[in-house]
Records
---
Amino acid sequence: MAYAEDYQDLAVYRAAFSLQQRVFATSRSFPADERYSLTDQIRRSSRSVGANLAEAWKKRRYQAHFVSKLTDADAEAAETRHWLHTAHACGYLTEEECAELERRTRQVGRMLGAMIRDAPTWCSG
């Protein structure tokens, strides 16, 4: 684990933030009639990954709370993957766009999983 003074210093946070921005930019081309459904859902879930990670960072004094918020972040990443597949199935994302965003989402999930497995290290001190 590399020392981090704040959640924004974490590689996983930077990856999650980059993902959310990419999802936002990509979803701008979704049809207007999806604005309050798919577009809103995919943006909300992708943004929740980083938000839950920020909350987890502040709760690392309590390992159970830390792990719970990281688990929430991981669940939001999985939800984002679902919406990516939905957008692709509807023809709003190309195969390449979907694959790239899914790769990023899985990477964030692996990083979150590592933090969950190493929770005592993150919560000590």
---
Amino acid sequence: MKKVSLYFFAILALLTVATSCKKDQHESSDNVDTPKTEIPDDYIGKWIIGNVNPAHFTDYDGTRENDMLNTIAYTLKKDGTAEQFIYIYEENANKQTLTYRKGTITFDQATSTLKFNPTEGRYRIFENGTKTEDAMTASGLYPAYAPQYRNCKLEQDNNATYLVATNDYNETVGFAKANW
């Protein structure tokens, strides 16, 4: 199983911060129609790269344990609704960013592509003991932000199921099926 590169998380961190730290007016995507399709049964569930448990996103207080890895996770539902969880740690800045987005997802059978279309979200930044929290701006929501995973397939490795795909940076990523 190929590991997700550090480059991917560095770009993801920059994208998360760039799309969430603007202090401009919070725009809602309520007036934007987000695409949504039914998701194949094999893709339904919780998927994760990393080890930060998304179940603790809402009550996380910034106390970082040494073994916490950069994480991206999704919950995919049959009806085409989805949630995204991202945890990024920037060691040199002693900065942690947690991002939560909720929205819809599409699956293109012909290209085996999953596309996440977030309609709302929040972020929290813990930096040197200070916490910043706010709603995601329009630049961090659909249509400006809509990550895709192409050539999706399921693989088995050591009794674990992985959703393997190519991300927007043309990297192969493998999300482990999870329970949280």
---
Amino acid sequence: MAVCRALLERVEHHAQALASQTPVVRVRSLRLEIGRLANIEIDALEFCFGAAARGTCAEGATLEIFRTPGRAWCTECAEEVSVESHLDRCPECGSGMLVPCGGDQMLLKGMEVV
């Protein structure tokens, strides 16, 4: 729920900025990019979003979610590799000594307003 509230704060901020240029009635959809290492459960985010959005400009908005791969640096073979979770091993050398270096964020990539 906290992630949804933070997202909605950002959405309302952007909607207010847009309203100074064009009248914004409501947000119709949001495009999100969520990395595999972001520790965000997509089903929980979608479930909570509807409840958190009640009474905001995003009430009734849909979520378009795009997953991005996780990236990690292997300290053993010095390669940047693609990973699906924090528990993965290096696909190049099998080491468990990976340092996350990407795919651990949630980005608001766009929103459709009417």
